[in-house]
Amino acid sequence: MEQKQFQAESKRMLDLMIHSIYTHKEIFLRELISNASDAIDKLYFRSLTDDGVGTKRDEFCIELRPDKEARTLTVTDNGIGMTAQELEQNLGVIAHSGSRAFKSENDLGENADIIGQFGVGFYSAFMAAKRVTVRTRAYGSDTAYIWQSEGVEGYTIDTCDKETVGTEITLELLDDTDDEHYSDFLEEYRLRQLVKKYSDYIRFPIRMEVTRQRKVEGTEDQYEPYTETETLNSMVPLWKKNKNELTDDEYNQFYHDKFYDYTDPLLHLHNRSEGTVTYNSLLYIPAKAPFDFYTKDYEKGLQLYANGVMIMEKCADLLPDHFSFVRGLVDSEDLSLNISREMLQHDRQLRLIAKSLEKSIKNELAKLLKTDRAKYEEFWKAFGVQLKYGVYEGFGANKELLQDLLLFHSSGCENDEGFTTLAEYVSRMREDQKCIYYAAGESVTRCRSLPAAELVRDKGYEVLYLTDRVDEFAVKMLGQYAEKELKNVSAGDLGLESEEDKTALEEKNAAAKELFDEMQKTLEGKVKTVRLSGRLKSHAVCLSSEGQLSLDMERVLNQAPGGEKVQAERVLELNPEHPVFGTLQRLLTEDRDKLADYTKLLYQQALLIEGLPVEDPVALSRMICDLMV
Ligand code: ADP
User: Fold this and answer.
1) What count of other Cβ atoms lies within 10 Å of the Cβ of residue 291?
2) Which of 34, 252, 421, 491 is a good FRET partner for 157, with 20 to 30 A between their CA atoms?
3) Ligand 1 within 6 A of CB of 167
4) Domain residues for 584?
5) Contact, 126 vs 350, CB < 8 A?
6) What's the pTM?
7) What pLDDT digit, counting tens, does each position of 439-459 carry?
C-alpha cells in the first residue's frame, strides 16, 4: 500500500506534537471527544429532517474503550463519519487556526503552551500515541476506510469493513517513560477524571464500560467482577441550567470543585446574555483573597468555553484588573474551539463579553452594597484595596465606574471600624460646606489625632480617614466627587476662614517675617517656609505641604523598597494663639541660639505628629532633657 506524505505544514505540526515538551498531554482526549461530538452534531441535525439517518436521537453517543493488554485506547462515535476524500483532506492537512500561531513563531517553548491552551485537534493524539488508526464510514456511504499513521513519516488509507456509520479512533499508546506514564490513560479513574475535567458538558453521553464488584449470591464475603456501562459526563453544564432550578448549595459545591477554594464564595452571578454576543456566564466573588492575591504571582482570568468545551483555563482578557478577584467561567456559542491565544486577544466577541461582564460585576457589587451592607463590608475588607488601585490605575480611566463602590473610614462613622461611601458623606455635608475633607495616616487613631483634622471636625465638618497606602493616590485621582473637591486637611488652603480672618492672619504673618526667616534658615533644606496658620486649634505646631505630593504620600512612597526617596514641600505651621509663639518672638531679640534649638524641637515634634520619622532621635531626646533640667 502506498505511503502518503503529510503536507509540509502538517508535518511540522506533527513534529511539534511528538516532541512537545508540553506536560498536559492529556488534552488529546478532550480534542478527540470534541471532534466526535461535532461529528454527532452534524448527523444529529440531519436526523431532524431526514428519517433515513437510522440512528435514533437518543442513541447518539461517544464511547471510550481502554484495552490494557493491547495498550490501546479507542474513541468511537456514531456521528457523520468521513469519506475517503474527507479523510485525505481533514487528516492530511492542518487547515485550522491553531496552525497560524505555529507558523508565526517557530519557538518550541512558546508553542508548547499554545498547544496546551487551545489544542490542535486531531494531531494532538500523537502526543500520547505511537500509532493512530482511524476507521470511519461516512453517512450515506457503503464503503468504510481505514487511515493509519505513525507520525511524520506519513499515512496510509485503505478500505475496510465497518458495519455502522461513524468513526473509531484507536491510539496505540507510547511506552511509559520516567516522566510520562502513558498507561494511565488506560485506567478507568483517569479517564473518568479527564472527562469530568474537560468534557463534562459535551451534550452527548460519553460512555465507558467499567468493572465493578458485587457479592456472589448466597455468600457472605465473596465478590465477583461484572461490567456495566457508565456515562461519564453530566451533559448539562450547571451554567446552562435554569437559575431557578439551582440552589446556593449547588452553586457553592460547583465552586469548590472547580476552583479548589473550600470557603464558600461571597456571592455568585449567573447570567445568560443574548445580545450582540450570546454567552452564559457564571461568576463568583470569593469570600477571602487567595494568599497570593496581592502579589505578582496571582493570575487573573476566567475559564473560557466554546460551546461547552473548555478552551482556556484562565482567560485574562475577560477580566479588568480592578475585578481580578472574580472567579468563574464564560461559555459562548460564538467562539471557535480552535481559536489561538493571539487571535483571542483581538477577538471582537471576546471584548464585548468582557465589557458586559465588567458592567454586571459592577452592578452586582452596587446592589450588594445597597442590600447587604455587612456582606459588602466583608467583601471590601478582602478586595477593597484592589478597587482603589483600579481608581488610580490607567490615569483614572475607571474612576466613574468604581467611585460609588469605595468605602472609607470617617469621623462620621460610629466607630473606628465603620465605613462610609462618598455618597453618604455628601448626603451629610453641611449646607455651607464646599469640600470633602480627608486626613491620611497609618491608622484611624493617627488620622483622628492630626491637629488639622481636629480643627476641621471642630468646625462641624466630617473628615474621611484614609488609612490604606493606596488611598490618597486613589482620592487624588478622583479629584472630586459630586462636584465637591476632595481636600487633604494637611495641605494648602482649607477654605474654612472668613475673608477677615484671612487678612488678619496675613498681617500677623507679615509682622513676624523676621522671626520666620530666621527659623527657616535653621531648618534650611527641611522646610520651605515657616508661617502662622489657621489650621491649628490646641496644638502649637504642625507640618503641612504644598504642591502635589502630600506628607502621607511621601511616607508611603518612601516605604516602598528601592526607588528614589521623595520629599513633599514641607511647611512648618505655627499656632498664633499658642503661648509658644510668644516665646519665639521674645527669643528673636534675646537669644538666637535658643531660638534655633526651639525651632529644631518644634520641627521634630511636627514630624512626630505626622507619623514621619524624626531625623535625629538622640539629639531630640538630649534637647528635651536639657529643657527639663
Ligand atoms: P478541527 O476539529 O479544528 O477542524 P481537527 O484536526 O481536530 O481540527 O480535525 C480536522 C477535521 O477532521 C475536522 O474538522 C472534521 O471534519 C474531521 N474529523 C475529525 N474527527 C472526526 C470524527 N470523529 N468524525 C468525523 N470527522 C472528524
Assistant:
1) 9
2) 34
3) yes
4) 500-629
5) no
6) 0.66
7) 999 899 999 989 889 989 998
